Amino acid sequence: MSFSLSPVTTATTTTSSSSPSLDALGWDSGWEAEFAPYAAQGLLPGRVVRVDRGQCDVATADGTVRADTAFVTPHDPLRVVCTGDWAAVDPEGASDPRYVRAYLPRRTAFVRSTSSKRSEGQILAANVDHAVIAVSLAVELDLGRIERFLALAWESGAQPTVVLSKADLVPDPVGLSYLVEDVETVAPGVPVLPVSSTTGEGLDVLMATIAGGTTALLGVSGAGKSTLANVLVGEDVMAVQAARDVDGKGRHTTTTRNLFVLPGGGVLIDTPGLRGVGLWDAEAGVGQVFSEIEELAGECRFHDCAHESEPGCAVTAAIEDGTLPVRRLESYRKLVRENRRIVAKTDARVRSEMLKEWKRMGAGGRASQEFKRSGRLQ
To answer: Fewer beta carbons below 10 Å: N end or C end of the chain?
Structure first.
């Protein structure tokens, strides 16, 4: 297939007269092979650039079209159409409204747990190659939150990069280098780039890092994501509001996930600011973020070491000699526990293992209380 289209739009009309080439949106021979059965049915390939209330904007060879998602809205929230999906859409005139009939299997997907108490995940973006985690230097660094975003990114299958935005607010080069080092300690194997959308510092490096492929822009409200998106795209595609001076928090300027073509090649998905970063079955992602702890755990005397008071524990030895910060181990334990609770909601085996652990811990606690009370063990 060959497509020759111009810049993407997200207009709410049924058809836009312009759209980028599918190659510019990430179309390749692999997607073409996956789409072959739908092409035989006369459907059009396109990439979802925005989803809103049961409808979505899809960039196709006919331009950007508005399509209904009723045919691909299952009960499973992880299988709904998402920004970044490659979709099979009705050709013009086939139906009114036009429908998304299917989407191609995702290569990668960003998933977090919902804020509700139900055992559901929420998909944020699909088919992403790079994850840019925006962290504002206008407020004190929250290393634990950065670790959470990194676990989300690694688990998705994308390559993360941490961008320290608003670097112009830290005029002291030495102080800025210390902040970069602090983040590098919690982001092993991840580039950490100080960037200023005001002065242009670091933008050339960032653009070179994400050139080609699909990039998801993640972060909390007030991290400067919308401003950064405008700079990367080269025009004001996102509204910008000032963060509160008292705490640096933003006001959720971005409310939907939008896909834009980058002038240097590749595409950008800007996501709404996330108040909470709940993990969703992210065991591998957590292990990647805390790779040094996982490596130490492999050196422990016991394979099921809890890294507390067991003899021959390499993790506690690293704590004692100062090579592993206590905060780092506590954060690792917290994310592991949280992830296991999420997985246990849908995995009976994990749920059973957790119940056994709780019973064992409860029995140990009761035995300790009895020993304190009577001076002997039952």
So the answer is: C
| 80-124 pLDDT per residue, tens | 999 999 999 999 888 888 999 999 999 999 988 765 455 567 888
Count of the separate structural domains present in the chain: 3
Q: Strand order in 63-68's β-sheet?
A: 63-68, 55-60, 44-52, 86-89, 100-103
Within 10 angstroms of residue 173's Cβ, the number of other Cβ atoms is 9
Q: Are residues 66 and 92 in the same domain?
A: yes
CB-based contacts of 63: which residues, under 8 Å, 6+ apart?
5, 15, 16, 17, 18, 19
Q: Which of 83, 94, 102 is nearest to 45 (CA)?
A: 102
Dihedrals phi, psi of 280, to nearest 5 degrees: -135, 100
For residues 241 and 364, membership in a common domain is answered with no
pTM of the model: 0.80
pLDDT at residue 8 above 70?
Answer: no
Looking at residue 292, which CATH number applies to its domain? 1.10.40.50
- The residue range of the domain holding 246 is 128-270
Which tokens in the block code for residue 96? Answer: 């009114």
Phi/psi for 165 (5° steps) reads -80, 165
Tokens of 239: 């509204």
| Percentage of the chain modeled with pLDDT above 90 | 57
Residues 165 and 246 occupy one common structural domain: yes
